[in-house]
Design brief:
eight-stranded antiparallel beta barrel, two-stranded antiparallel ribbon
């Protein structure tokens, strides 16, 4: 049975459910699952450069992640785990975040293409519409609180 997690935006009373793609990205799924137990609280942002994307930082993994099931062209509902080194203008630190796509997007930033591990998916069209509504609001504000938690917690 597949594991699921929730994307909760407390200020909007919104909950979206995503399914882990454990067969396609088993290491990434396990790292993410461990990172959200206890629930992970962060700021949610709009990925203005990459198109229809919401993103937030995630806990750094305990060991280096491989690229698995990677893509630079996510579809609506896809959730990508990014792990890359920032460009030199930003101290060259390692970044760990997820991109939650509510439309067809691309992982291209000013510094070039950034592949992400496709490890989860929102499959409900109703939930994708909820993400679209949050995205519209995020275009007018800097950030919103978000909680990533295992389903049922």
């Amino acid at each position: 049975m597949a594991r699921h997690f929730e994307i909760v935006v407390p200020g909007r009373q919104m909950v979206v459910t995503a399914e882990l793609l454990e067969n396609a990205a088993p290491i990434t799924c396990e790292v993410f699952w461990e990172g959200i137990g206890p629930p992970w609280k962060e700021s949610l942002h709009h990925g203005r450069e990459t198109g229809p994307e919401l993103w937030c930082f995630v806990a750094p993994p305990s060991e280096e992640l491989p690229y698995e099931n990677s893509t630079v062209f996510p579809d609506p509902g896809d959730i990508l785990y990014y792990h890359y080194i920032q460009p030199p203008t930003r101290d060259g630190k390692k970044v760990f975040d997820i991109g939650i796509y509510y439309g067809r997007g691309c992982s291209k930033l000013r510094q070039g293409w950034i592949p992400g591990n496709l490890f989860a998916r929102v499959t409900s069209r109703e939930d994708i519409k909820k993400l679209e509504a949050v995205a519209a609001e995020l275009l007018t504000v800097n950030a919103m609180d978000v909680v990533l938690q295992r389903r049922g917690t």
